């Protein structure tokens, strides 16, 4: 399908694109985002052709490939015209359209993606007896993040799907303009301030999060999902008492769980921050998510204090999550050289819940409610993977009326048994603190700064 759009040429990468490019290079594969949707009755293939042309023409990130210079430095290459594929998949009358669409989506997610040659949108219409019934689409993260995907979908209100006409101009800064802005004096000052903050935090934490090294399992990265209504209710109760949000409260519980397993009371956790609050970026279709460091000491104190420390640390992280990744890596190298060891910052926390993370309306939960919810907790293992990832990565999933959290660990650093200890300890401390403002963290103080090389 042919497309055309404004702008062409080459440019530096944006900071968000640099983050994702490095993540792809470390993982050895593209990280994809997207999904499947049943099509409403009356939808034609031409409607989807118009949709695909609309999103590609209006968003530079979907008309961009990448080139590597001789020094290995990537640049983004924007095209004003080209052709992009729309796959038409015919399924049998006895096939489940949802299952068939999921198979197509999974094929896009796990299939090869070449940033130098492929367009960053893979899309299919599934037909049964010639009638479009389902839709699947996937996009590499270097083109779009979760909130960018919402901006993309929201912009469809400006498409006349019958004619393909654009009903309003596109809003949101495009990647070329953002890359240019990020090379300006104001953005570089913001980057320098952010890196200064990171450096202060890095110097507060141990060089290594986990001292143990184990024979890694096969696959090496282990996933476990805890689903706990009791945690959801307990976090709501603690939020009402402390003023901290439930995400910060769960982050504090995560810090306690990490301390219990590692024996180190100060946790350095990289939490994900969206930079869409910055001018012109709310509707941009480009990756704007960045991680920033939260440092939470959980020793010899009550959990309310831990939750408030986590909350304050997240607020600061939001301010200092706008930076050039190259400057951050240079700072890491300089600090490592001074200390005689690399600083291990491979624990992550990502709260995906948004509206599901808000406190529930109505009366606060009672102790009896929380007690009754405890037997409902489930622990589910897998899927495991050999795709390289962090030492620990926690994700809070958008599931209503419960706390659904996934913890992935590198089994060379954390055993599956220790992995279970972390999530069980999180539930224990949240439930124990739900109605006890003096509930102790249960973690004793220790040496929080490695002295190796000093």
From TrEMBL:
Q: Which InterPro entries does the record match to this protein?
A: CAT-like_dom_sf, Condensation_dom
Q: Where are the transmembrane segments?
A: none
Q: Tell me what organism the protein belongs to.
A: Catenulispora acidiphila (strain DSM 44928 / JCM 14897 / NBRC 102108 / NRRL B-24433 / ID139908)
Q: Which residues form a coiled coil?
A: none
Instruction: Identify this protein by name.
Output: Condensation domain protein
Q: Where is the Condensation domain?
A: 37-325
One matching Pfam family is: Condensation
> Which GO terms of type biological process are on file?
lipid biosynthetic process
Q: Name one GO molecular function term.
A: catalytic activity
